[in-house]
Specification:
The protein contains 13 helices and 27 strands. The chain is of the alpha/beta class and 543 residues long. Among the domains are: 226 residues, 3-Layer(bba) Sandwich (FAD/NAD(P)-binding domain), CATH 3.50.50.60; 147 residues, Glutaredoxin. Strands 1, 2, 8, 9, 10, 11, 17 and 18 form an eight-stranded mixed β-sheet that branches. Strands 6-5-13-14-15-12-16-19 form an eight-stranded mixed β-sheet, sandwiched between helices. Strands 20-27-26-23-24-25 form a six-stranded mixed β-sheet, with helices on one face. α1 packs parallel to α4, α1 runs parallel beside α7 and α7 runs antiparallel to α8. The longest helix is centred in the middle third of the chain and has 30 residues. The mean pLDDT is 92.
């Protein structure tokens, strides 16, 4: 008997990491959402493995990081060699982030952890359900679904296609998905290997005859090799090409266990021309696909969903209007375009056979190895910690400009983590677990009367006008200030910068910082721009 509901605020098509991230975040914000997937059960195999530092912050916010770490292997390094020896060694633990490493977690395990969390929040995944077509109306979308051989109609306010590279939602919208298919073919093998390579690092061997990538998994290794178009790219996949490449890299082939998965794939690089058409949006692989090298695809899709979820939730509550939904494409499509470009360069250089290209590539890697600051910048980019939305219509700076010598992020950038002290220690990354905007009122260690007046005024006005979607935190210096004691009577939190960490990352002195639910900076201003900040919040609410 078909017990599927007939209505839902949001219909999410696709129960992969992107769709489930979106669903969890919406449930955290009190939004009714329904997830469907055409597969009767999750796929047992997965090409996606790596989870980067920014994604771990997102998973911390979703409440799944502990479970996913339990299912993962922690990578703390990257080692790259050519046929002459080591080229580059990267230490992931040098990242300035709460979780400075990479988690190697098969996508199947990621999906299992996300699905469990979604169900804990009262959600349900409807499997074996296909989207057959959709019709947009003025204030809703009608989805025509196939359920157990029957046709089912569902009304929703918004529909999000997280249904992968072959997205039916994208096709229904008539949105282009232009790009190219690379000439090289690639082979994957998941298996146990009897060797001494560190399982806390990934290893790349860039050889004249082709490259070999070795990635640690929780209970085995993944090997990836490339094949040229002149090699046998149609026959049955065997271990023989892997043995040959391992022998070229190591001098001999180590003992190999029985393969758990052998497959061949080609690289497609494509980007959707738009991410939204009226009340239907796209996310994840439905928007962008690329080489798996660098583990950017799954991470980018998860970040897409994290960016979109809070905008959908506010839109459904009458805050922000259509421009809020428009900002999703405005912010995330440039990220995908830049990612496709950088991953394409990484993939082409990693698998290059031309002597001139290989020589130039190896020189660059050796140069990076001798310049730690530049290597650190590369790490931050790969880890997606440097993604910013500086040109977004949803970010701004106060009209008074910025204090001379004041540090800290600019509007649109990810807000660095810092630990503060109230009744317990609180990290800024912990605020992601309660998806709201947070106004951080930073005061001097010894605030003057004007600062105190502004702090008390904002502590009164922000909760009274925006309490349903903005929380207020007053940050004092290392020592408690007696004049702030009466703030306990207001609907605000008072935290101290007990170890000076906030001042070290954001600069000393008084300032206003508005953090978005995705952890990016929406607005920064001097304390004198409090009225302008209130006006900006009112404008955002009524757009």
């Amino acid at each position: 008997m078909n017990l599927m509901p007939r209505r839902s605020a949001v219909l999410i098509v696709g129960a992969g990491p992107t769709g489930l991230t979106l669903a969890i975040r919406l449930r955290q914000m009190g939004v009714d959402c329904l997830v469907i997937d055409q597969l009767a059960e999750a796929m047992p195999w997965s090409r996606a493995l790596g989870l980067h530092a920014r994604t771990m912050e997102i998973f911390h916010g979703l409440g799944v990081l502990t479970d996913i770490r339990r299912r993962s292997t922690v990578q703390t390094g990257v080692m790259i060699h050519n046929d002459q020896g080591p080229l580059l060694s990267l230490d992931l633990t040098t990242l300035d982030a709460p979780f400075p490493w990479v988690l190697s977690c098969p996508q199947t395990e990621v999906e299992a952890a996300l699905a469990q969390r979604f169900e804990e929040l009262g959600g349900r995944i409807w499997r074996g359900v296909t989207l057959q077509s959709l019709t947009q109306q003025g204030d809703s979308v009608e989805a025509h679904l196939g359920v157990a051989g029957e046709r089912h109609q569902l009304q929703c306010e918004l529909l999000v296609g997280c249904d992968g590279a072959h997205s039916l939602v994208r096709d229904e919208l008539g949105i282009g998905f232009d790009g190219v298919t690379e000439k090289d073919h690639f082979l994957i093998a998941d298996l146990a290997i009897g060797w001494s390579l560190s399982a806390t690092s990934s290893h790349g061997f860039l050889l004249p005859e082709g490259s070999l990538i070795a990635l640690p998994m929780p209970d085995c290794w993944r090997l990836v090799i490339n094949q040229s178009a002149s090699e046998d790219t149609q026959g049955e996949v065997t271990l023989e090409p892997f043995r040959e490449r391992l022998s070229a890299a190591l001098g001999e082939c180590p003992p190999l266990g029985e393969p758990r998965w052998l497959t061949r794939f080609t690289i497609h690089r494509r980007l959707a021309s738009h991410y939204r058409k009226n009340r239907v949006l796209l996310s994840g692989d439905a928007c962008h696909i690329q080489s798996p090298l660098g583990a950017q695809g799954m991470n980018t899709g998860i970040a897409d969903a994290f960016n979109l979820a809070w905008k959908v939730a506010l839109f459904l509550r009458g805050i922000g209007g259509g421009q809020l939904l428009d900002s999703y494409e405005r912010e995330r499509r440039p990220v995908a375009r830049a990612m496709l470009y950088s991953v394409d360069i990484l993939s082409r250089s990693s698998f290059a056979r031309n002597l001139l290209l290989r020589t130039g590539r190896d020189w660059v890697l050796k140069f990076l190895n001798g310049h730690p600051k530049m290597a650190s910048g590369l790490l931050r980019r790969i880890s997606q910690l440097d993604i910013a939305y500086r040109d977004s219509p949803l970010v701004a700076q106060g009209p008074s400009g910025w204090l001379s010598g004041k540090d800290g992020p600019v509007p649109g950038e990810r807000m660095p983590d810092a630990h503060l002290l109230g009744s317990d220690e609180v990290a800024l990354v912990d605020l992601l677990q309660d998806p709201r905007h947070y106004l951080l009122i930073q005061l001097d260690a010894e605030p003057d009367p004007q600062q105190l007046l502004t702090a008390y005024a904002l502590a009164d006005r922000v909760p009274s006008e925006f309490s349903d979607w903005v929380s207020t935190i007053v940050i004092s210096g290392p020592e408690p200030v007696e004049s702030l004691r009466e703030l306990a009577d207001f609907d605000v939190s008072v935290l101290s910068d007990h170890n000076g960490e906030f001042a070290a990352r954001y600069g000393g002195g008084a300032a206003l910082w508005l953090m978005r639910p995705d952890g990016h900076l929406a607005y920064r201003a001097t304390l004198s721009d409090g009225d302008q900040l209130l006006g900006w919040l009112r404008q955002l609410r009524r757009r």
